[in-house]
Design brief:
eleven-stranded mixed sheet; about 10% strand; alpha/beta; Amidase signature (AS) enzymes; single chain; 2 domains
Length: about 525
């Protein structure tokens, strides 16, 4: 539907009020730049990994503490950075992440640090350092990355506001008033990256936990294809939805990060099993959008509910896509955020299957037992100790440990509701693929969220988003900054979304948009 003359004038006025922003990095501070620029500086002897890691830790203790973004810092980061410098001098670098300071979310196990889950009660119950690395942490270390520590999140990664009972409300670094939410649950990871404390960070996403804070803090957040990144050694959420991925300031950096953490591993029963090659992620082309057809799904860009500024920002993002060579057209797929739940249910009924339920309690119970089995010799005793604190948030589980105990040994892959959900996912995704193929659409584009960060204490606008749609279908999605609003806050992110398995393609398209638009802006308060 075309806007009325009054609406068009309001949108033009909003667009005119937007500050003209371009990609801004401090040339003399590698922490404000990209991984490629940082490594180039190391090669020419402008700085060492040890020097930059020390500076990153200083920022964590100052800005990170002020913004309540840090859960815990590693005691070994500087030693690891010096070892990375030794490898560089000896010509034995492990790859593009060697010597790069990064972070992980508080629900990840990290050798030598307690896993607090950003929950005060859990931190009290489990104060001892764990003696293993989560699989993603181990893969980052194998790639030579310097894991600085852990970032604060919502308790057990449950909400989307960045509110931790352990470390307090994470603050948005773009907001001088200290009242606007950074989003969540991967709040601290996003703030650490936006604030130049690290180049990238691990986050998790069950319904927007990477993408929401990416938009609210003005950086890149990715939800990969479901199962591409195994989740072993991380406090579980909903196994049939939970998707782990990178948070970074640039798409190219997110791609390098994903290349290090993705790939099959039998320790996660729901992870993909096919071989995966991350090599294409090392070189993303600036012209990847040239001639590519992108679909705009009207239901995913609710213009009538968006503010004039948000609509103007979105229209500018679409113009940037076209300027980068894309053919951008309306697209109405068989399944959208308005009907995907009905489509899953109808698929199950047609198979005479049980009702789908991605929140079914048995998979979460089994995942929790598997988590403790990897970190302690007596997993049931540990689970019993922490059960009440965890169940307070994941109340799909039975009220008591005793009631939950019969569920613990039921493999998550054998849960009838979960298996039905997985079957429906395959069928619904197939119908989406048919729609995209018929329209000649390579990927979809829509606002990550159609509104910018509210105050942390306020309810969010009642505007529908496609966040849950992406998790239910297991789609890869890259959220990229679209610019800063008139109030100086990140106003919108553009999401580029593809079919499962097209992660490299989606990253390449998002990179081309980013290079054309150059809308990243560092927090003014830094």
């Amino acid at each position: 539907m075309s806007p009325t003359r009054r609406e068009a004038l309001a949108q033009l006025a909003a667009l005119a009020a937007l500050p003209y922003t371009r990609w801004t990095f401090a040339a003399d501070d590698p922490l404000d730049g990209t991984i490629a620029a940082y490594q180039a500086g190391r090669t020419r002897g402008a700085w060492t990994a040890a020097e930059v890691t020390a500076r990153a830790l200083d920022r964590c203790r100052s800005d990170g503490t002020r913004w309540r973004a840090i859960d815990a810092l590693s005691d070994t980061a500087l030693a690891e950075a010096r070892a990375a410098d030794d490898r560089r001098r000896a010509g034995r670098m492990r790859g593009p992440l060697d010597g790069v300071p990064v972070f992980a979310k508080a629900i990840y196990d990290m050798n030598g640090l307690p896993t607090t889950a950003s929950n005060a009660e859990w931190a009290r119950l489990f104060p001892e350092p764990v003696r293993r690395d989560a699989l993603e942490i181990a893969r980052l270390r194998a790639a030579g990355a310097i894991v600085l520590g852990k970032t604060a999140a919502d308790d057990f990664a449950f909400h989307g506001n960045g509110t931790s009972s352990h470390t307090g409300q994470v603050l948005n670094p773009h907001d001088a008033t200290g009242t606007r939410t950074p989003g969540g649950s991967s709040a601290g990871s996003s703030v650490a990256v936006a604030g130049g404390m690290a180049f990238a960070a691990l986050g998790t996403d069950d319904g927007g936990s990477n993408r929401i804070p990416a938009q609210f803090t003005g950086i890149v957040g990715m939800k990969p294809t479901f199962g591409l990144v195994p989740r072993t050694g991380v406090i579980p959420t909903w196994p049939y939805l939970d998707t782990h991925g990178p948070i970074a300031r640039s798409v190219a950096d997110a791609a390098l990060f994903l290349a290090a953490i993705a790939g099959p591993d039998a320790s996660d029963p729901l992870a993909l099993t096919a071989a995966w090659d991350g090599t294409p992620l090392a070189t993303l082309r600036d012209d990847s959008l040239s001639g590519v057809r992108l679909g705009i799904v009207e239901a995913h860009a609710p213009r009538a509910q968006m503010t004039p500024e948000a609509v103007a920002m979105w229209d500018r993002a679409v113009s940037d896509l076209r300027a980068a060579g894309a053919v951008v057209e309306p697209f109405t797929p068989a399944v959208t955020r308005l009907n995907y739940r009905d489509a899953f249910a109808a698929s199950a009924r047609a198979r005479n299957d049980v009702a789908v339920d991605p929140d079914s309690p048995a998979p979460t119970a089994n995942a929790l037992l598997r988590y403790f089995a990897g970190r302690t010799d007596d997993p049931r005793a540990a689970l019993r100790r922490g059960y009440t604190a965890y169940q307070k948030f994941y109340n799909v589980l039975p009220a008591t440990y005793e009631e939950c105990e019969p569920l613990l040994d039921k493999p998550m892959t054998d849960d009838p509701a979960g298996r039905s959900f997985a079957r429906s996912r395959a069928e619904v995704v197939a119908s989406l693929a048919d729609s995209m193929r018929a329209a000649g659409v390579a990927a979809m584009a829509y606002p990550t969220m159609p509104f910018n960060a509210p105050r942390a204490v306020d309810p969010w606008p009642k505007i529908g988003t496609a966040l849950g749609y992406g998790n239910w279908l297991g789609l890869p999605e890259v959220s990229v900054p679209a610019g800063i609003g008139a109030d100086g806050m990140p106003a919108l992110n553009l999401s580029v979304v593809g079919l499962p398995g097209t992660d490299a393609r989606v990253l390449a398209l998002a990179h081309a948009y980013e290079r054309q638009s150059r809308r990243f802006v560092a927090p003014a308060s830094r």
